[in-house]
Automatic annotation (TrEMBL):
<keyword id="KW-0326">Glycosidase</keyword>
<keyword id="KW-0378">Hydrolase</keyword>
<dbReference type="Pfam" id="PF00332">
    <property type="entry name" value="Glyco_hydro_17"/>
</dbReference>
<dbReference type="GO" id="GO:0005975">
    <property type="term" value="P:carbohydrate metabolic process"/>
</dbReference>
<dbReference type="InterPro" id="IPR000490">
    <property type="entry name" value="Glyco_hydro_17"/>
</dbReference>
<dbReference type="InterPro" id="IPR017853">
    <property type="entry name" value="GH"/>
</dbReference>
<protein>
    <recommendedName>
        <fullName>glucan endo-1,3-beta-D-glucosidase</fullName>
        <ecNumber>3.2.1.39</ecNumber>
    </recommendedName>
</protein>
<dbReference type="GO" id="GO:0042973">
    <property type="term" value="F:glucan endo-1,3-beta-D-glucosidase activity"/>
</dbReference>
<dbReference type="InterPro" id="IPR044965">
    <property type="entry name" value="Glyco_hydro_17_plant"/>
</dbReference>
<keyword id="KW-0732">Signal</keyword>
<feature type="signal peptide">
    <location>
        <begin position="1"/>
        <end position="22"/>
    </location>
</feature>
<comment type="similarity">
    <text>Belongs to the glycosyl hydrolase 17 family.</text>
</comment>
Length: 377
């Protein structure tokens, strides 16, 4: 009986310990932006994420305070190499090696860094020097990971905006812009070799805001609608996000990368905006994010790729009061700075740290009591 008790104890330890997996677990993730002076500290953010059961998290840098707060939490993190570092990393492999050592390797394995996003929305932005540096930076960072035997643990990606496409309506007509192709194709060649997905920042909110007279808002919000019909593929779309994703698949196919997966790295809806952003309301934001969460929970693909389960990082965790630009930029958060929900899509507001710790202590004490009892049998 003593040996059976030990076996059960080992099972309990295995079951309640973090299990190393790929870069994304499940279908739902969140972007943790921090361009604000009033959001909770990283340790409270960890508590909020765990309460919400959101495991996949993206940040836009490699801030050590955040990386330390995520240590031992079991949350999977994608860190960012900001655009301002790309030229340096592209031209100097030693600098890339140092960056990876300082910001990734030194925090593993306790902080579960599962990916590095090389820049953000670089291509299609009009900066040819930055566009030219993207591939070199990605290669040097990847080679640094390889020297440390981390290339199988930490995935290299970069996120693209809709600006890389020449046309995306209907989805079957989508191709990459001519001035983007010279940078995009070599990048896709490299990502295809290392098994990285095509990462897309897709915002039906922006598409509707720019074309409110031509787009049915119900189509943008996942609400019942006639949708659109793509005659070339004989496919019907009942929501805009699926159409945006399949447009990306068509552009990839046209470029010769039919098998590459499309992952959504940003999507969301603003709850407040300027006078020329009338669709930015709490009700529309709640509707979009609630329906998106339901759609992801179904673990299904798009009309063009029905067997490829869609994965998405939602933008964003918090309203960020220091972001420049239009008012909508500061109102994408699912949560307000004090940890309360911006609107109800099934998450709860941040609970007190003491109540969470008490629950954790209770579970730990229960497990220890069970273990001791089993060992005494």
């Amino acid at each position: 009986m003593r040996s059976s008790g030990l076996l059960l104890l080992n099972f309990l330890f295995f079951f309640f310990s973090p299990i190393l997996t790929g870069a994304f677990v499940g279908t739902y993730g969140i972007n943790y932006g921090r361009i604000a002076d009033n959001i909770p500290s990283p340790d409270k953010v960890v508590l909020l994420l765990k309460q919400a059961k959101i495991r996949n998290v993206r940040i836009y840098d490699a801030d050590h305070t955040v990386l330390q707060a995520f240590s031992g939490t079991g949350l999977d993190l994608v860190v960012g190499l900001p655009n301002g570092f790309l030229k340096e990393m592209s031209s100097n492999a030693d600098h890339a090696l140092t960056w990876v050592k300082d910001n990734v390797q030194s925090f593993l394995p306790n902080t579960r860094i599962r990916g590095i996003a090389i820049g953000n929305e670089v291509l299609g932005g009009g900066d040819s020097e930055l566009s030219g540096a993207l591939l070199g930076a990605a290669k040097n960072v990847y080679n640094a990971l390889k020297k440390m035997n981390l290339e199988g643990t930490v995935q290299i990606t970069t996120a693209h905006s809709q600006a890389v496409f020449a046309d995306s309506y209907p989805p079957s007509s989508c191709v990459f812009k001519e001035n983007v192709v010279q940078y995009m194709k070599p990048l896709l060649d490299f990502f295809d070799q290392i098994g990285s997905p095509f990462c897309l920042n897709a915002y039906p909110f922006l598409a509707y805001t720019y074309n409110p007279t031509q787009i049915d808002i119900n189509y943008a919000l996942f609400k019942p609608t006639e949708g659109i019909y793509d005659a070339k593929t004989n496919l019907r779309y009942d929501n805009m996000l699926d159409a945006q994703i399949d447009a990306a698949y068509m552009a990839l196919e046209d470029a010769g990368f039919k098998e590459m997966e499309v992952m959504i790295t940003e999507t969301g809806w603003a709850s407040k905006g300027d006078s020329d952003e009338p669709a930015a309301t709490p009700e529309n934001a709640r509707t979009y994010n609630y329906n998106l969460r339901k759609r992801l929970a179904k673990k299904k693909g798009t009309p063009l790729r029905p067997k490829t389960v869609l994965k998405a990082y939602i933008f964003a965790l918090f309203n960020e009061n220091s972001k420049p630009g239009k008012s909508s930029e500061t109102h994408f958060g699912l949560f307000k700075p004090d940890g309360t929900i911006s609107y109800d899509i099934g998450f709860n507001s941040l609970k007190s740290d003491s109540s969470s710790k008490a629950a954790s202590c209770y579970v730990a004490s229960l497990l220890i009591s069970i273990s001791v009892f089993l060992l005494m049998i």
